[in-house]
Amino acid sequence: MSTRRKFMRSAGIISLAAAGGLASCSKQSLKYGDRNFNFNQQAFLFPKLKVSHDRVIRETVGLRPFRKTGFRLEKEMLDQKTIIHNYGHGGSGWSLSWGTGNMASDLAVATGEKKVAVMGCGTVGIATARLLQKKGCDVTIYAKDLHPNVTSSVATGTWSPSSRVIEEENITPEFEDKWTKACNFSYNAFQQLLGLNQIVTWLDHYRMSNSESYSSSHSSKLDIPGQLTNNEIVSPENHPFNFEYVKRQTTIVFNIPSYLEKQLNDFLKYGGDVVIKEFKTLEDVDALPEKCIVNCTGLGSKALFNDDNLMPISGQLSFLIPQPEFNYRISTPDGYAIPRKDGIILGGNAIRGNWDTTPDPAQTEKVVNALMDVMAQMKS
Questions:
Q1: Can the peptide bond before residue 161 be classed as cis, meaning omega within 30 degrees of 0?
Q2: Contact predicate 151/122, CB 8 Å
């Protein structure tokens, strides 16, 4: 071995020893809080959200199809055709889509018809169509439009099976049983999509406020204990947020564009057809060649099937430039931020009876400013 190589090797060993000696002599030790950050004497490594008005890349307004008595899942006759209704999920359409789709497809299969029509191509319609295929039916989807021009495309895409799904005073044992079955079926269906290009992911949700009542206001009578992790209080030394009350729960997020694309491609791959068609009257529905029709038109059912129990609840979303390292959700009384592959979703409002889908700049400004304050006050 040359003299130069001997010198470099010995110098390297000495350097490593010195580094180890310095580490062992230090009185500070590194502690690990959880998978989102390392904690070492108030040094938190939560990835900070990059939020500012110039990072907003688009704004949308989605209309949740809400029914005071809960989603409609039942059969009725239209002349010689069987109509099976599956709509009105409020803010729970994504979460319950597979569960109510399974119930609706069972009702369709029970008619004995092998050719089935599905009206609507949102998350509920696609899930219903795929389940019908799996049960041996030849399915055609009829829809006025496809992603990204459907209501499901402008949702938050989070696991929220009890969000604006029914007025709590209208919950009956029968509805709760139906909701529970739908919720369990959907939950299991989404677990089977884990690992597929982050179509479905788990992440930690931090709900924060300076008022203890904020967290309790988000509770619901509809709940399945053990489905998600426990909602736990996080002590101040274990989070970087400048709020008096912080709760954490690990929950599910759907990456909407890739999810809808995969489901529609699967539907087509397994022999399904899609026909662009708008339904303005019941005569349009009656004119379909299929004798069994599953109605998943959401808010379109209000006029088409004269459902006075159906109403929109609008929710405005703003999208920030995607930020891959931002890997947790935060909710405050003035707005929330949810990481998705297509951007950071900001939202937090709900207006009952509002049909207007024009974004309000003041709402975007309110949420952006609130989250800028949260980031500015994060401990560092």
A1: no
A2: yes
User: What span, in angstroms and rounded, lies between the C-alpha atoms of 196 and 192?
Assistant: 9
Q: 3-class SS at 342?
A: coil
pTM of the entire structure? 0.87
The H helix count followed by the E strand count for the chain is 9, 18
Q: Sketch out the chain's domains with CATH numbers.
A: 53-376 (3.30.9.10)
- Both tokens of 272, joined, read 């399904």
> What sign for the dihedral angle of Cα 204, 95, 332, 221?
negative
Query: Which tokens sit at 281?
Result: 């009257």
What's the rounded Cα separation, in Å, for the pair 65 and 102? Answer: 19
Angstrom distance (rounded) from CA 116 to CA 268? 15
pLDDT at 36 over 70: no
Structure tokens at 215: 């967290």
Residue 38 has pLDDT above 60, yes or no: no
For residue range 202-258, what is the model confidence (pLDDT) as tens digits?
A: 999 999 999 877 654 444 789 999 999 999 999 988 899 999 999 999 999 999 999
pLDDT for 28 equals: 42
Element (H, E) at 14: helix 3-25
**φ/ψ of residue 60, rounded to 5:** -140, 160
Who wins on pLDDT, 34 or 253? 253
End-to-end CA distance of the chain: 49
Specify whether the CB–CB gap between 166 and 66 falls below 8 A.
Answer: no
